[in-house]
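A sample follows:
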Amino acid sequence: MLRLAAGLLWGVAALVLVLFAVANRGTVPVSIDPFAADPSLSARLPLFLLLFGAAALGIVVGGFADRLRSRRHARALRQEIRRRDEELARHRAATPPAPGLPAPR
């Protein structure tokens, strides 16, 4: 049931994107230099390509930023695990085993 709902959702999203692309196929000027009166570094692109490209760029940049953040978080967690392992080893070394019980491993 969940797969059917997901499939329907993706189908509706694809249909909306296709309708958006068809409705916005007119070309717009895209300039790299916003201050030039007659931009020499410009191109005319369909509006839907410009918007889809901007969305794709945002996804890539956001994914890269999230990857960097998760690596930093994972490094901090590894340091915390190492610190707690050292603390546990010190505690086990300082605590003698109770009589009649096996020594901890």
